[in-house]
């Protein structure tokens, strides 16, 4: 069964709709990281991080590999980094607009 593109996009954005998932993706955009490092930088419970990583893995946004006794995560697609940069640009542009609106009152 074929899913319309707009529905696939909506599901994709729902996947991104958790602050911990966005933070994981931002950190992985800087380079691959072991789980213990993600835990230190995100400051959430290990079970919550595990759950968020599983969601990102199932969505095909991150990959994992074992290296010794560590699990290392990385972005699955370079386009994810592009998306994060686009989101930052949109938010920055909106914030600049808010400042202009405030100044014009």
Which key features would you list for this structure?
single chain; 105 residues; alpha+beta; Arc Repressor Mutant, subunit A
CATH superfamily of one domain: Winged helix-like DNA-binding domain superfamily/Winged helix DNA-binding domain
The computed structural class is alpha+beta
Tell me the quaternary state. single chain
CATH domain fold name of one domain: Arc Repressor Mutant, subunit A
- By DSSP (H or I, 4+ residues per run), the number of helices equals 5
Low-pLDDT segments, ≥5 res: none
Order of helices and strands: HHEHHEEH
CATH class of one domain: Mainly Alpha
Q: Whole-number average pLDDT?
A: 91
Characterize the largest beta sheet: strand count, sense, and whether it forms a barrel: 3 strands, antiparallel
Beta strand count: 3
Span from first to last CA? 52 Å
Supply Rg.
17 Å
- What is the helix content? 55-70%
Could you please describe the fold and organization of this structure?
- The protein has helices at residues 5-15, 19-29, 35-42, 46-58, 78-103; strands at residues 33-34, 62-67, 70-75.
- It is of the alpha+beta class and 105 residues long.
- It has five helices and three strands.
- It has a three-stranded antiparallel sheet.
- The termini are far apart.
- The mean pLDDT is 91.
- β2 (62-67) and β3 form a beta hairpin.
- The protein has a domain at 5-76: Orthogonal Bundle (Arc Repressor Mutant, subunit A).
Topology:
Elements: H1 5-15, H2 19-29, E1 33-34, H3 35-42, H4 46-58, E2 62-67, E3 70-75, H5 78-103
Antiparallel strand pairs: 1-3, 2-3
Helix pairs in contact: 2-5
């Amino acid at each position: 069964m074929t899913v319309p593109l707009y529905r696939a996009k909506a599901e994709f954005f729902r996947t991104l709709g958790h602050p911990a998932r966005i933070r994981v993706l931002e950190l992985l955009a800087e380079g691959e990281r072991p789980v213990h490092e993600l835990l230190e930088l995100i400051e959430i419970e290990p079970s919550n991080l595990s759950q968020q990583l599983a969601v990102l893995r199932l969505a095909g946004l991150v990959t994992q590999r074992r290296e010794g006794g560590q699990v290392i995560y990385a972005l699955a697609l370079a386009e994810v980094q592009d998306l994060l940069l686009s989101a930052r640009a949109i938010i920055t542009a909106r914030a600049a607009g808010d400042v202009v609106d405030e100044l014009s009152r």
